[in-house]
Design brief:
Blueprint (H helix, E strand, L loop, with lengths): L3 E6 L2 E6 L2 E6 L22 H20 L19 H11 L3 H8 L3 H9 L7 H10 L12
Antiparallel strand pairs: 1-2, 2-3
Length: 149
């Protein structure tokens, strides 16, 4: 028969059975000691009932639209295809940004050999690199971030 030993610490209840130690929370016996909840909250700080109300309103609008009772809210985005750059265009963008090949490669998250291959025409950037080149070319993003002293 295993040896039972109970240890009480604060609001926790520790029980040792044999060599195993089990930690359990003490359950309040009266409603006065029960934790008070002001409502379950989501990550945005809204109460769950407010989230439910928003969801219900959206579903009611969708049902009304399907029945033909009102206009639907819709937003359409058109994503333009990424421009493909030649080796001279890549070099011009890098030079206008005032970067060396090493800094340019760190900016793009590629090796300096990759940038060298782009500029010599052996390989060509694809996907996200082309988008980032387009943003640098349009000067939509700064090439460097200033650090405060």
């Amino acid at each position: 028969m295993p040896y039972d030993k109970n240890i009480h610490r604060g609001s926790d209840f520790y029980q040792t059975v044999g060599r195993n130690r089990i930690r359990r929370r003490r359950i309040a016996a009266t409603p006065d000691h029960a934790p008070k909840r002001s409502g379950i909250r989501t990550h945005r700080g809204k109460r769950m009932s407010a989230l439910f109300d928003d969801l219900k309103e959206g579903l009611e609008q969708a049902i009304d639209f399907e029945k033909g009772n009102g206009p639907a809210k819709s937003v359409t985005y058109t994503i333009l295809p990424a421009k493909h750059y030649t080796n001279t265009e890549i070099r011009d963008i890098r030079m206008k940004a005032g970067m060396t090949q090493a800094i340019f490669s760190a900016y793009f998250g590629v090796s300096p050999k990759t940038v060298e291959a782009w500029e010599n025409g052996r390989t060509h950037p694809t996907g996200p690199a082309c988008r980032l080149l387009g943003l640098l070319e349009a000067k939509s993003i700064p090439p460097f971030v200033e650090l405060s002293k």
